[in-house]
Design brief:
By secondary structure, the chain is α/β, with parallel strands linked by helices. The chain has five helices and nine strands; from the N terminus they run βββαββαβαβαββα. The longest helix has 19 residues. The two termini are 30 Å apart. The relative contact order is 0.21. It comes from Streptomyces candidus.
Length: 258
């Protein structure tokens, strides 16, 4: 039986993280920073990140991101699984998160802004991975996906500009990592435009702004949720609720979408 959703104090209702995925589909978590000094709703210190993932992995098996690229598209797993994702491509994803992921046996998808890669700064929120660092992550079994070139609000800019941003970043990923990873995309700010301008075979990930639909029903608006920063006392309840919801009545798949 699904438990009552836990509420995280101070977070507006539309951004509450309690809703995970449609029953039977992988729970998808998104992070931005793993850094001791960054304050952001999806930024955790290295110690918090490790502790939070450990709690999640008590109930969920790691989802292999390579399964996203399977022929015919991903299938519902037999057990509760979690897919870990990172947005924007910050350098601390490699300097702090990488070793923790390795220790816990987790492989992730890093959605990077291809036009910002290589930009360096003493400010963590302006300090990005290089392509070489992305290459190393890819070589270790992680996937590099597209997140536009410069991180605009796709739902607030002209459609022609949005197409350049989305298709351009997918082309950048395809050129370096091949056609498989170029089928993965995440919307900046979770803003899904009326016309996403994505190829039909692209799996596109939103945030808590997206509905918890089966991936086959809405493959270009996959819901993700998060471990809220500054609210570690709610994580156990969230993990329990996500797992209970995963075991709920499975929504029938829609054929022909993948």
């Amino acid at each position: 039986m699904t438990t009552a959703p836990p509420l995280v104090p101070g977070i507006p209702a539309e951004y509450q993280p309690a809703t995970g995925s449609a029953p039977g589909w992988p729970l998808v978590l998104y992070f931005h920073h793993v850094h001791p000094d960054v304050r952001h709703y999806t930024a955790l210190s290295p110690e918090e990140f490790e502790r939070g993932l450990e709690q999640v992995l008590e109930r969920f098996d790691p989802y292999d991101p390579a399964d996203l690229l399977a022929d015919g598209g991903p299938r519902r797993p037999e057990r509760p699984t979690v897919l870990v994702t990172f947005d924007d491509g910050y350098r601390d994803n490699a300097t702090h998160a990488r070793d923790i992921l390795d220790r816990l046996g987790v492989r992730a998808v890093f959605f990077v802004c291809t036009g910002l890669l290589g930009q360096r700064s003493t400010r963590p929120r302006e300090d990005f991975l290089t392509y070489q660092a992305c290459d190393r992550l890819a070589g270790e079994g992680h996937l590099i996906g597209a997140h536009t070139r410069t991180h605009p609000h796709l739902d607030r800019i002209p459609a022609t500009e949005g197409r350049v941003q989305t298709r351009g970043s997918l082309d950048d990923i395809r050129e370096r990592y091949g056609p498989g990873p170029a089928r993965l995309f995440a919307y900046p700010y979770g803003g899904v435009p009326v016309q996403p301008h994505l190829p039909e075979d692209v799996l596109a990930f939103g945030t808590v702004r997206s509905p918890a639909s089966p991936w086959t029903a809405d493959p270009q608006q996959i819901r993700r949720t998060y471990l809220p920063s500054g609210a570690a006392d709610t994580w156990a309840a969230l993990v329990h609720h996500w797992c209970s919801a995963w075991d709920g009545p499975a929504t029938p798949a829609v054929a022909g979408q993948f």
